[in-house]
Amino acid sequence: MIQVAGYCRVSTDKEDQANSYTSQQSYFQEYIAQNPDWTLYEIYADEGISGTSTRKRSQFHRMIQDAYAGKFQLILTKEVSRFSRNIVDTLSYTRKLKRMGVAVEFVTDRINTMDGDGELRLSIMATMAQDESRRTSSRVVWGQTRQMEKGVVFGRSMLGYDVAGGKLTIEPEGAALVRLIFQKYAVEQVGTAELARFLTREGYRTYRGSSKWTPNAVLKILKNEKYVGDLVQRKTYTPDYLTHEKRTNRGQVPLIRLENHHEPIVSREVWDLAQARLRQNNKHRPGSGHSNRYVFSGKIRCGLCGASFVGRMKRRKDGTKVRRWCCGTATSEGRAGCAIGKMVRDDDAMHMLKTAVNHLSLDRDGIVRTVTALAVEAIRFTERGSGDAPEHLRFALARLQEKKEAVMDAFFSGDIGKEDMLAMKRRYEHQAKDLAQRLERAEEKQRSGEGLAQLRESIQAEVAALLDLDTESEVLGKTLVDHLTVYQDRHMELRLLDLPQVFRFAG
Fold first, then answer.
1. Looking at residue 332, what is its pLDDT?
2. Residues whose CB falls within 8 Å of the CB of residue 485, separated by 6 or more in sequence, listed in order
C-alpha cells in the first residue's frame, strides 16, 4: 500500500476553519478512494496565509520532515498555487522529495513530479502562480495607497487614540496622559529620562499596560505626528512580494502626508516646541555610549576609580536649579560616588572651560572666515537636498504626473469608478499647481542668490560670539572638551581636544 499525505490551506477565519478542513478532508478521501493501492496517512493543513513563502507554514514543514522520515510516498495537493507561489520553493522542495522517492501530485493541474515532463509543466505552472501573486500584490498596494490618500488609517490603536474602521477617535484617559507628557517635556523642560522616572513613580501605565516607562517610550510619543492631528503613512514598505519582509521607508517609496487629518490631542504650538527641543537635544549625539546632551556628559573622569561622573539636577533654596556632577561608581551603601567625595557644579566646569579657551592663542579672523564658509556651504547643501530645492520639486512634479497617468489607466481598465477617478485627478492637479508655484519661486531665488549675503553676515556674527564665549554654547563646548579629571586632593585637570596643554584648577 502507498501511504498518501494531503496538503491544503484552510480559512484564516477561526469560525470557518472546521468547515474548511472538513471540506478538504472529504475531497482527499474521495480522491484516494478511487485508487485501491492508496491509503491516507495524514492531512496537513496550514491557515490560508500567503503562498509566496513557506517560512511561516508550520504544517508544511512538518509534512516535509515526515516525508524525509519515509512516513509516506505521495503528497496530494489541489494545485500548484496551494503548494507554493514561489517558483524557487516549488522546484526546490519537489526535487528534494523526488530524490527521496516521494512524488507530489497536483490534482487540478494534472501534474505528477515523477512524470517525464512533470518538472517542465510544473515550472510553467509555478511561474504563472508566482506572476499571479505579483499582480495581486501590486493591486493590493495600489488599492491601499489610494485609500491612504483618501485619509483611511492603516494601523493599530495607540495611547490616546482608538483606530476602528480606518478612523482615529480620541480615547480620553490616554489623551490626558499624552497631554501631560507634552506639557512636561515641551513647556516645563523635563528631560525624557526624568519624565520616564516620573511616569513610573506616579503609577501611569503605557498603552500595553506596563508600569515601567523608558526614555525611548517617551520619545516615541513625542515624535508621533498623529498627536497634533497629522497623518503620515507608508513609514514601512515591502520591497519583495515573495518574502513579505517589511523595511523602514528611508525614501524608497513616497510617504503619504495629510495635515490636519483628524482631531489633535496637543496644540500645534506645543507640538512645535517639543519638536524644536528634540532637534536641539539630538545635535551631536553619538550613536552609543554616554549621552551627549550636555557639554560635560561622559567627559568628567574620576581620578580615583576612573569612572565617569554622572549629572544630577539639584534645586537651590531660591528655587533655581543647578546641575552637579559626581562619580558614577556606586558605593557599598548603594549611593552614587566612590570615596573621592567630590562634586563638580556644571557652571564651575563651564567657567574652567572659558578660562582655558581665553588662554589660547587663536587666529580669530581666520577661524571666523573658515567656519563661516563651511557653514554656508553646509546650509546650501542641505537646502539642495530639502523639499524646496528645485531638483526635488521637479522630481515631485514628475512623480505626480506618473500618478495621474496611473489613475487614468486604472479607470480605463475598470479598477476604479469615474467618481474616484475625477476626485483623484482634481487632487493631483491641485498639488501640481502648488508644486509649480513653489518651483518658480525656488528657481528665482536660486538665480538671484537672495539671502546669501545676509546668511553669511549672520553666521559670522554667531561664530564671533562663540569664540568670545558670550554664550554658553553647548556645540562649541562639546567640540572643545576632551575630558576633565577630578582628583582626590580636590584639584582638577582639563584637557582640550587635540591640544597638548593641561589646564589645572584648584578645587
1. 39
2. 300, 301, 302, 303, 492, 493, 495
